[in-house]
Automatic annotation (TrEMBL):
Name of this protein: Dynamin
Keyword field: Cytoplasm, Cytoskeleton, GTP-binding, Hydrolase, Microtubule, Motor protein, Nucleotide-binding
Annotated localization: Cytoplasm, Cytoskeleton, Phragmoplast
Domain GED, chain residue ranges per copy: 517-609
Organism for this UniProt entry: Escallonia herrerae
Gene Ontology MF terms in the entry: GTP binding; GTPase activity; microtubule binding
Length: 609
């Protein structure tokens, strides 16, 4: 069972080392879940003397006013043999065998945290004492409760101390060791008063009476010790501390314990209670009770730790990796984030994520509808055909077929296809831009770094702009190709009978009659429809080749080329994570380290059992 107390000792030390003091914070706390014994008492109640009696050593600072200004977590480890020594958690490689030096270090470490003022701090001091004369036990010595502030202290010190004490003892896992002097009325005891507030039934309070030997003649503490004055679930324990004269004479603690035993066994009023009185008995009772409480809490602790580890890992994953310190690490980190973004963008286009289907919709619906809306009939109206044919003939009327007129009519009609072609390019460009912004918002790693997010978005959009421009050139060239070279076979297959305009003996005016011009318009319209059918298939190919395919292949190539020219400091400006997030990640990582260590410690104890 002794290893259970050692387990809690190790977990408490880990809590302090990793910043878990059980205070109010946005982080889960293991400290509050660990069973502990808090020592509570008013100033001059004999609290320090009780602790020194349990330990068997003079090691606590003494003086007037508030001496204990920080919680002192006192961890006692029983040795089978060997020389007793002490260690502080803040000085892990230093052993103290002189307990006067321990007293000085407690005072110095308090001043390091609070300054030489008389302020208090909630940050604990950890002191481990190894000795053959102690039981395995952990006690938390809290500042003594006071009713007035002394010189150099703020007026709020009374409430500050009371709030600190209450923050420890109000937790259900805290065992309260309430120290009260026997030569004062229990009704006025600071320790009993505050203990009653948080533990009204006395289910986790141990009452300790000090200064029994200093009571007025003719009075005794039997009613108090037997629980008639104030009943607790556990029996009251009386102790006889060394007097100030004994302390001044440096009376040995072992001798003091012997005198304490003799006092209770030889005093008639207490003789029947002697077997459960004294500081030695107090240490054993507390050790045994603490062991049983720890044992009952182990399953709940394991469950809490496992649950919290999952929660911490989930949040750390959401916050992302910490920023690298060297230029190479930063460059790699930026490239990795960009790779993730690029992959998400490709998944949108490839159908693994929504959005890529909108590109097909442009080719399947938008482009055909736009081509269908082109008013070729207006372009090939009788008057326009007549005008272009006569203008093309110039001073020399055509002899057989108005070839130049045909060309002008076809070119002037086909050029109108440029509008829908450009609109298709622009529509796909808008879709790709939208997918870029979606991909950026879905790349959780980019949310950490606002500057990098802006740079990647700008770089991707600039690449898309360049691809759009190239796509427009290529797509418009397809239309211009159709204008610049006509498909001869189409016209060779047209009927060429005399009555339809092939007889040169007709008068020049006959060649411009309505029937003849309608035939020309009809031929041109048939040719244009053929070309439209061809372009309806080739424009999407050009757009996909120049924009979609290129975006998948080289969206951030230009950005990467510029990135390689940047130095470490410039790369650092891109990774401008919110300082609050950075601090949160550090805090979470420390807390996760604590919980994993706790999980390992508890599992070891569970397996050994």
């Amino acid at each position: 069972m002794e290893n259970l107390i050692s387990l809690v000792n190790r977990l408490q030390r880990a809590c302090t080392a990793l910043g878990d003091h059980g205070d109010e914070s946005a982080l889960p706390t293991l400290w509050d879940a660990l069973p502990s014994i808090a020592v509570v008492g008013g100033q001059s109640s004999g609290k320090s003397s009780v602790l020194e009696s349990v330990v068997g050593k003079d090691f606590l600072p003494r003086g007037s006013g508030i001496v204990t200004r920080r919680p002192l977590v006192l961890q006692l480890h029983r040795l089978d043999e060997g020389r007793e020594y002490a260690e502080f958690a803040h000085l892990p490689r230093k052993r103290f065998t002189d307990f006067a030096a321990v007293r000085k270090e407690i005072a110095d470490e308090t001043d390091r945290e609070t300054g030489r003022s008389k302020q208090i701090s909630t940050v604990p001091i950890y002191l481990s004492i190894y000795s053959p004369n102690v039981v395995n036990l952990t006690l938390i010595d809290l500042p003594g409760l006071t009713k007035v502030a002394v010189e150099g202290q703020p007026d709020s010190i009374v409430h500050d101390i009371e709030n600190m004490v209450r923050s420890y003892i109000e937790k259900p896992n805290c065992i309260i060791l309430a120290i009260s002097p026997a030569n004062q009325d229990l009704a006025t005891s600071d320790a009993i008063k505050i203990s009653r507030e948080v533990d009204p039934k006395g289910e986790r309070t141990f009452g300790v009476l000090t200064k029994i030997d200093l009571m007025d003649k003719g009075t005794d503490a039997v009613d108090m010790l037997e629980g008639r004055s104030y009943k607790l679930q556990f029996p009251w324990i009386g102790v006889v501390n060394r007097s100030q004269a004994d302390i001044n004479k440096s009376v040995d603690m072992i001798a003091a314990r012997r005198r304490e035993r003799e006092y209770f066994s030889s005093t008639p009023e207490y003789k029947h209670l002697a077997h459960r009185m004294g500081s030695e008995h107090l240490g054993k009772v507390l050790s045994k009770h603490l062991e049983s409480v720890i044992k009952s809490r182990i399953p709940g602790l394991q469950s809490l730790i496992n649950k919290t580890i999952i929660e911490l890992e989930t949040e750390l994953s959401r916050l992302g990796k910490p920023i690298a310190t060297d230029a190479g690490g930063k460059l790699y980190m930026i490239m990795e984030i960009c790779r993730i973004f690029d992959q998400i963008f490709k998944e949108h286009l490839d159908g693994k994520r929504p959005g890529g289907d909108k590109v097909y919709n442009v080719f399947d619906n938008q482009l055909p509808a736009a081509l269908k809306r082109l008013q070729f009939d207006k372009q090939l109206a009788m008057e326009n055909v007549r005008k272009l044919i006569t203008e093309a003939d110039g001073y020399q009327p055509h002899l057989i077929a108005p070839e130049q007129g045909y060309r002008r009519l076809i070119e002037s009609t086909l050029v109108t296809i440029k509008g829908p072609a450009e609109a298709s390019v622009d529509a796909v460009h808008a879709i790709l831009k939208d997918l870029v912004h979606k991909s950026i918002s879905e790349t959780s790693e980019l949310k950490q770094y606002p500057s990098l997010r802006v740079e990647v978005a700008n770089a991707a959009c600039e690449s898309l702009d360049r691809m759009r421009d190239e796509s427009k050139k290529a797509t418009l060239q397809l239309v211009e190709m159709e204008c610049s070279y006509l498909t001869v076979d189409f016209f060779r297959k047209l009927p060429q009978d005399i009555e339809k305009g092939g007889n040169p003996t007709h008068s020049i005016f006959d060649r411009y009659n309505d029937s003849y011009l309608r035939r020309i318009g009809s031929n041109v319209l048939s040719y244009v429809h053929m070309v439209v059918g061809t372009l309806r298939n080739s424009i999407p190919k050009s757009v996909v080749y120049c924009q979609v395919r290129e975006a998948k292949r080289s969206l951030l190539d230009h950005f990467f080329a510029e990135l390689g020219k940047k130095e470490g400091k410039q790369l650092g400006t891109l990774l401008d994570e919110d300082p609050a997030i950075m601090q949160r990640r550090i805090s979470l990582a420390k807390r996760l380290e604590l919980y994993r260590a706790a999980q390992s410690e508890i599992d070891t104890v569970a397996w050994s059992k």
